Structures are given as C-alpha cells and as structure tokens.
Amino acid sequence: MAKPSVLVLNGPNLNLLGRREPAVYGHQTLADIDGLCREEGEALGLDVACAQSNYEGRLIELIHEAMGRHHGLVMNPGAYTHTSLAIMDAIRVVDLPLVEVHLSNVHAREAFRHKSFVSPVAMGVICGLGAQGYRFALQALAQHFAKGSSADGIGE
Length: 156
Ligand code: DQA
Prior knowledge:
Layout: E1 5-10, H1 22-25, H2 30-44, E2 47-52, H3 56-66, E3 72-76, H4 85-94, E4 98-102, E5 124-127, H5 132-147
Parallel strand pairs: 1-2, 1-3, 3-4, 4-5
The structure holds 1,3,4-trihydroxy-5-OXO-cyclohexanecarboxylic acid.
C-alpha cells in the first residue's frame, strides 16, 4: 500500500518566518519548518509535501489540487484564518482531514485572532506550541490514517 501523503500548507507572511516578529513566531524559518515536517513524515511513514502562498486564491487552488493527490493536510492559514470563508468552503469541498496549526496562541492575542473560519472544518486545531505544532499535527494525521484505509484510492 502506498504511503499516505500529506500536504503542509502555509499562508501569508509565513515565508518571512525567522525575521517576522520572532518574539511571537520564533526564530525558525519556513525552510526549517518544512525540514522538520519532512523529517517527522519520514519517521511516521508519511509522504510530506510543503507549499506556501501569500495569495488566498492560490491557497484555494492548492487545496483543490490536494484532491486525488494527498490524503490529508496540515494548514497554517495565517491571517486568512480569521477572514476567509472561501478557504473554509474549499476545505469543505475537498473533504480531506485537515489539522489547523498556529505557531502562536491565537486565543491569548487580540480578539480578532480568536475567530477562525477554518476550525469548524478542521479535524483538530493546534496553537501556541511553535514549530512543534506541525510535528503534532502530522502525528495526529498518521494516527487518523492508521485507523482507516487512508491510502486507498490514490495512485493505486
Ligand atoms: C498565525 C496567527 C495568525 O493570527 C497570524 O495572522 C499569522 C500567523 C500563527 O501561526 O500563529 O500570520 O497563524
């Protein structure tokens, strides 16, 4: 059976991790996080692909393209978390398990960060644990796949 495949998708401004408000988001770059995800994927027996975009429409296309290519998603939608009905609808359409990740604890921050359009369509949400949150998200997906027959139907 093929390895389950997971797309790790990062939204706007996350390409600047490392330089962007390190007191809030830490010193790790997006390349560091992608590397950590690939390493964790290897340990868990997952194929991990990583993508980032600053554009809402591109993120939506990447979510659509995940259909038939990936079995699940880890997504940090950045500020679109709090604004994007369109990203929520895209996730609903593709019907893949998605774990929402935030580096910072959005609930301990400004009130406008407390609302997420993504959480209602996510399998689970991890926030405030920094880059480790991506690791935990992959672990949650690996467990989810182990329970079902996740790799059926794609590339087989
Ligand atoms: C973030 C939290 C969002 O509120 C913010 O707009 C981001 C990053 C996080 O990872 O903590 O861009 O998603």
